[in-house]
Amino acid sequence: MTNSVDAVVVGAGPNGLAAALVLAGAGLEVQVHERGPVAGGGARSAELTLPGFLHDVCSAVHPMGLASPFFRAFDLAAHGVEMLQPEVTYAQPLDGGRAGLAYRDLSRTADGLGEDGAAWVSLLGPLAERWHGLVDAVMGDYRTVPADPLTLVRYGIRVLEQGSVAWNARFSGEVAPALLTGVGTHAIAPPRGLGPAGAGLMLAALAHAVGWPIPRGGSQAIVDAMVAELERRGGRVIVNSEVTALEELPRAKAVLLDVAPAGLLRIAGHRLPTLYRRWLQAYRYGGAACKVDFALTEPVPWEAPGLEKAGTLHVGGTREEMVASEREVAAGRHPDRPYVLAAQPGVVDESRAPAGRHTLWTYAHVPNGSTRDLGEAVTDQIERFAPGFRDVVLERRVVTAAEMQTYNPNYVGGDIASGATTPWQVAMRPLPAWDPYRTPIPGVYLCSSSTPPGPAVHGMCGLHAAKRALRQRFGIKTEPLDLVRNPLP
C-alpha cells in the first residue's frame, strides 16, 4: 500500500467503482479498498449451493445496466459483458393457472391483458417512449433542472395516481394491477405509496424500453468489467482490506466512501460535528430481505403457461395480497405468505448450472433485522404456483436478513436499499443538504446508495460524488460522463 495517492475509495461495489473510474479517467491515482475477498458488493456471483451452480449473491437482473447514464457511457457490451434478454421480461403468477406476462414489446403485453391492455399502454407507453429523459431525471442528483421536464411531469402525475387511493381507477381486471404492483413491491414497502409507485413505474417502463437483462456469467461480470477498466486506467483495487477508521487510509486529497450512514459513523463519527452526526443517527432503514437460493434438477414446474420463459417473477399473488403482506412487514411482522422476488437466469444463460440443471434466485421481504429462516415459506409460496417444485430442489441455501448485514454492512438490518424509500429519504438521502455527498470532513464524500438517486446497480451515486470531488478538491470541471467515455491522457 502506498503512503499517498490522489484519491481513495472505500468499498468496491458498483457505486464505489463508478466513482473510481471517473476519478481515474481524470488522470488521478486512485486506490480502492474492499473488505471482501473480491470486488462486487451488491453485484457478486458465487457457487452458493453446490459446485457448478453459479448464483448471484445480491442483485441479479439489471435494467439500469443498459439505462443509467453511467452505464450508457461505460458501455458494458464494449467491455465484453453480454446482457441477455429473456423472452418474457417479468411475470406475475396468479392462482388458477393464470399469470400476467410483461414482454419488451408493449403491444404484445397489452394483448395479453385483455380489457386492461389499452390502460396499460396509456400508463406506460409515454414513459417507455421518452425513457432517456425520464431516466436522466430520476438518476440525477435532484439538485439540477432536468433536460426533459415534460416527461418528468407525466411521470409525476402517474406516480401520484398509482401511489394514492386512485390506483385502482385505471384497471378493471385483476391481472394488470397485480402485474404492476409486483414491480412496485421491489421497494420493500407497502405498494400504495409514492416511493413504491415511482420505482414500479420506472422499472415497468424500462421493461418495454430496454428490457430487464441478465448478464451472462452472473452479475459479477459487470463488476469484473469495471475493475478491468479501472486497472487499465492505472487504478488499483485492494481486497480483504477492511477500513475501520479514516486514519488507516493512505494520505489523499479526496476520500469517497461507498458506505451507509451507519458505516460513516463507525469510520469517522468522532470527527463529525454533533448536528451532522445526529442526522446520520436519525437516518431510517427500511424493510429487509431474506435470501433463498435453490439448485434444481430441472426448471421450476410453473402451472401457468409462459412463466417458464420469464427472467423475473413476482410471486405474491394479487394486488390485495401483496399490499397485505407488505403492510405486515412494515409493522414488524412476518407474513404467512411473503412477497417473493424470483429470477430464473437459466432461461437465457446456460452457464449458471451443470448441463440439464438450473438455479433459482429468490428473496422474500421481512422486517428489518429479522433472524427468521424463510426457506420453507419461500418454498411454499413457489409451490403454490408451481406444483411439484419441492421435487426438483437439489439444495437450498438461506441467508437471513441479519446475516445479509454480516455479508455487507451497508445492508443495515438486511435493508438491501441502504435506507427506507420514503419520498423524503429518496430526495434527501442521507440528510437535508444541498450537497448530500460532501461530508463536513474536508475531502471526504459519501458515494453509496444512501445518497441520491438511491438503490439499484446504476453507478450514479458514485458518479455524482466523484463530480464534486473533482471540482472541489482538484479543480477539474470536465463532465464525469465524458471521463467515463474518454479518459484524459
Task: Tell me about this structure.
By secondary structure, the protein is of the alpha/beta class. The protein has 2 domains: 7-46 and 218-283 and 417-485, FAD/NAD(P)-binding domain (3-Layer(bba) Sandwich), CATH 3.50.50.60; 64-214 and 287-407, Polyamine Oxidase, Chain A, domain 2 (Alpha-Beta Complex), CATH 3.90.660. It is built from 18 helices and 16 strands. The strands form 4 sheets. Strands 7-6-12-13-14-11-15 form a 7-stranded mixed beta sheet, sandwiched between helices. A 5-stranded parallel beta sheet has the order 9-2-1-10-16, covered by helices on one side. A two-stranded antiparallel ribbon has the order 3-4. Helix 1 links the parallel strand 1 (7-10) and strand 2 (30-33). It is globular, with a radius of gyration of 21 Å.
Helical residues, percent: 25-40%
Radius of gyration: 21 Å
Number of helices: 18
Task: Name the CATH class of the largest domain.
Answer: Alpha Beta
Q: How many domains make up the 3D coordinates?
A: 2
Task: Please describe the structure with a list of short key phrases separated by commas or semicolons.
5-stranded parallel β-sheet, 2 domains, alpha/beta, globular, single chain, 7-stranded mixed β-sheet, Polyamine Oxidase, Chain A, domain 2, 489 residues, 18 helices, FAD/NAD(P)-binding domain
Task: Produce a short descriptive summary.
It is built from 18 helices and 16 strands. It has a 7-stranded mixed sheet, with helices on both faces.
